[in-house]
Design brief:
Layout: H1 2-19, E1 40-44, E2 51-52, E3 57-63, E4 70-76, E5 82-89, E6 91-94, H2 104-112, E7 117-125, E8 131-140, E9 153-164, H3 171-192
Parallel strand pairs: 2-9
Antiparallel strand pairs: 1-3, 3-7, 4-5, 4-8, 6-7, 8-9
């Protein structure tokens, strides 16, 4: 009877863990372009998953506002310190085309909304400190404010990533396999005694 409760508790725990990995789509903000309203979004190639330390992270900012000229990416580490600032000129594409190193939500949007012109910019970095990182994308020189010769930012969007430590020699999968093997040996020795 005790084993049944333990198994039920384990199944419940695994279900909770599986559900916590569900994340809101960040690219959906670009879809909100009706009439004269433009969509602005930022996401990463690791959207919704943990980033092993030292891996390449590509932040992609996109907008349907064709007057945007550049995007400034601000990367902050888990201590809220600014680590990198990238000023990137935008490029233009029309769906179903999409940039490299983007998550599936961007590819799906591009394939579902054919013929939509949009601008995008990308910033590539290698986060080297564990913890939650924030990435801001500031869109500049769009239609607001009209007639202003100064470069005022129009909108700011943000996303985040979680950088985790990784076992450098054998990797996470190898580490889990080694732990399972060790547990098996322990149980085998326990059975012999």
């Amino acid at each position: 009877m005790k084993k049944v409760y333990l198994l039920a508790l384990l199944a419940f725990g695994l279900t909770v863990l599986a559900c916590t990995d569900i994340v809101k789509a960040q690219w959906s903000a670009i879809k909100e372009n009706s009439g004269n309203n433009f969509g602005y979004a930022v996401t990463t190639n690791w959207h919704g998953t943990d980033v092993p330390i030292g891996q390449v992270v590509v932040a992609t900012a996109g907008t349907t506002d064709l007057d945007v000229t550049h995007v400034v990416f601000i990367w902050r580490n888990s201590s809220e310190n600014i680590v990198w600032v990238d000023n990137v000129t935008v490029s233009e594409l029309t769906t179903p085309d999409y940039p490299n190193n983007v998550p599936d939500e961007v590819i799906e949007w591009a394939n579902e909304t054919r013929g939509v012109p949009y601008k995008y910019a990308q910033s590539t970095r290698f986060p080297n400190v564990t913890g939650k990182w924030g990435i801001q994308a500031i869109f500049y020189n769009a239609t607001k404010p009209k007639g202003n010769h100064n470069e005022n930012f129009v909108v700011r969007r943000a996303t985040s990533i979680n950088v985790i430590p990784d076992a450098p020699v054998i990797g996470t999968a190898g580490l889990v396999s080694a732990m399972a093997f060790g547990l098996g040996l322990f149980k085998l020795k326990q059975k012999k005694n």
